[in-house]
Amino acid sequence: MDRTNIWQLLDSSGIGGIETHVTLLTQALRSRGMNAEIVLLNNHGPHPLAATWRQAGIPVRVLKDGIFGLQRCLNKEHPNLVHTHGYKAGILGRLAGQVTTTPVVSTYHAGEPGAGRIRLYNKLDAEISCGAPRIAVSEEIAARIGGDVHVIPNFISVPSMPFCGGDTVTFVGRLSHEKGPDRFVEIANSLPEISFEVFGDGPMRAELESQVTRNIRFHGNVPSMAHRWRNIGLLCISSRHEGLPMVALEAMANGVPVAGFGVGALPDVIENLSEGYIVPPGDTAQLASAITTWSATNLSERAQMIFKAHRKIKSTYSTDVIVPRIIEVYSSLLQSAAAPSRITSAKKVAA
Q: Fewest C-beta in 10 Å: which of 6, 12, 24, 228?
């Protein structure tokens, strides 16, 4: 598949798990000789990851006029394949792909079905995807979509040696209801002797900051956590819904164990009490207890958990393990797309 032109299509104005996934996937494809680029459906102004993409040498294309602009670019550029991420890119990407006969594959990242219009869009995205290759990052998401779905988990670039973190307990993510930052703040307020940090922004931030005590610090959005993991002791995932959170993989790869509710694929990633802590969904008392247990562990016990968490990600969720599985989906789709043209050519010769 060398020099195959692949577009990673998404609608994005911020930083989240999808953006991290797309960045890592595009880098991995380009390192394998493919001409992969990121294509943004709409111009939402300067993107917070623009500098990161530029430094990584990733081409980024920003479209105009929604689906019409996408169709024009597909007809002009003729990429071999479009890989969509998120419901808006999925819906518009597949419609434009049908009109322009461009092969399309879609990845489903969201663990939550959404509410209101988002719920409707997610349902539509799943329903009109039948017949095209689909990837889900967890078994739970695959079951919700239904039909034939490739279950391929998220992945991360794994450092050779994990950092030994600090003593803070940290939340990283969007400050919105499905991510449960209110639960994180509730736990932090109940454990005043432990330091807590929040990285991220969202609609709940002002409300949450009005509730905090002095042991919680808000940092807002940051373009990358790469140089911050070394100062973090434990990542807390207090989500109400999840798929396979990229932030959990990133933390464990960098030597930061995770304590979280058993939602989405987290119980598959983390062996409880060995590689981190998994508690029943929504049980804030047990999650607070897990954090207290971690805080009381000595350096030797923490080092063992760090090593095991790092080993799990390297063996099961690393770029080298997962990306070849995505490339297999691409290859199969491109071979299927090429078959009708070969049949048509054969009929012309026979005539």
A: 228
pLDDT at 129: 84
The predicted structure's pLDDT at residue 350: 43
**Pairwise CA distance, residues 134 & 212, whole Å:** 42
CB contact at 8 A, 250 and 20: yes
Nearest to 156 by CA among 330, 273, 328, 312: 312
Half-sphere exposure of 184 (CA within 13 A, CB side): 36
- CATH architecture of the domain with range 5-155+319-350: 3-Layer(aba) Sandwich (3.40)
CA–CA gap between residue 305 and residue 107 (Å, rounded): 31
CATH 3.40.50.2000 fits 168-316, yes or no: yes
Cα–Cα distance, 96 to 104 (Å, whole number): 9
CB atoms within 10 A of CB 237: 28
pLDDT of residue 121: 86
Q: Which residues of the chain have pLDDT under 70?
A: 1-2, 339-351
Residues 6+ apart with CB under 8 A from 24: 155, 156, 157, 319
